[in-house]
C-alpha cells in the first residue's frame, strides 16, 4: 500500500467482523513498527497483545467497573480539565458526527452511554494491543510512543486490518496489569482495538473532519 493512502485512509474503526487475526500477522505488524524512530534509539515501547479468553475477561472486568460507577483512574490525564476554543468545538463536532453515524439522537442519553460502553467491548475487535512505557523515561519518550503507535496502525492497513486507539480501555490500568502481567513500573498509555473492519457498518462509513493546512502551518523564507 502506498504510504500516502495508508495515512489518509486510516480511520478509527468502531465495528469489526467476527474474524480472528492470525498471531503471525500481529507479529509482522510489530516487527515493522519497531523500526519507528525514538530519541537516542531508546525504543521505549512495550506492547501487550491481548486476545481470546484474556480479552473477554478484561472486557467483563471493565464493564463491571463501569456498572458499579467506579471512577476511571488512568495512569495520566489525557484531556484538559477545561476545554477552550478551538478544541472545545472540535471535540463537540467529533461527538456529533459519531452519534449521527450511529443514528443516536441529541437527547438519547441511554444510547450514548451504551455507545461509550462499547469501548469496553473493544468495538467487537478480536484483539487489543496495550502500549506501555517505562516510568523511568522522560517526556520525550511520549513522542516516540505516538510515532510507534501510528506505525502500528499504518502497518495494520497493509494486512487489511482496521484499528482504533482507545484511551478508554486504559481507564482502569490495574485491570490491564492483572490480565497482562505487566508491572506497575510501566505506564499504561492506551489500548488499540485491532481486527478486520465491518465495512458495511455505518459507524465505519463516516469520516472525521480536518482543518486546512493554512490554518495550522506558518511558512517562512
Ligand atoms: C490516543 C488516542 C486515544 C483515543 N481514544 C479513543 C477512545 O477511547 N474511544 C474512541 O472511540 N476513540 C478514541 N480515539 C479516536 C479519536 O476519537 C479519533 O482518532 C479522532 O476522532 C479522529 O478520527 P479518525 O481516527 O477516524 O481519523 C483515540 C485516539 C487517540 C489518538
Overview features:
single chain; 221 residues; alpha+beta; NADH Oxidase; 4-stranded antiparallel β-sheet; 40% helix; 14% strand; binds flavin mononucleotide
Report on this model:
The protein is an alpha+beta fold. It has one domain (3-208): NADH Oxidase, CATH 3.40.109. It has helices at 3-9, 23-33, 52-67, 87-101, 109-117, 140-158, 173-180, 213-216; strands spanning 45-51, 127-134, 162-166, 186-195. A four-stranded antiparallel sheet has the order 1-2-4-3, with helices on both faces. Helix 2 packs across helix 6 (140-158). The longest helix is centred in the last third of the chain and has 19 residues, at 140-158. The protein is globular and about 50 Å long. The mean pLDDT is 97. Flavin mononucleotide (FMN) binds at residues 11-12, 14, 94, 119, 164-168, 190, 208. Flavin mononucleotide (FMN) binds next to strand 3.
Computed over alpha carbons, the radius of gyration is 18 Å
What order do the strands of the largest sheet run in, or round the barrel if closed?
Answer: 1-2-4-3
In total, the number of domains comes to: 1
Number of discrete helical segments? 8
Q: Please identify which CATH superfamily we are dealing with.
A: NADH Oxidase
Order of helices and strands: HHEHHHEHEHEH
Uncertain segments: none
Q: The CATH topology, please?
A: NADH Oxidase
Through-space gap between termini:
34 Å
Helical amount: 40-55%
Q: What CATH first level would be assigned?
A: Alpha Beta
Strand content: 5-15%
- Please state the second-level CATH architecture: 3-Layer(aba) Sandwich
Strand runs, count: 4
Mean pLDDT: 97
The computed structural class is alpha+beta
- How is the biggest beta sheet arranged? 4 strands, antiparallel
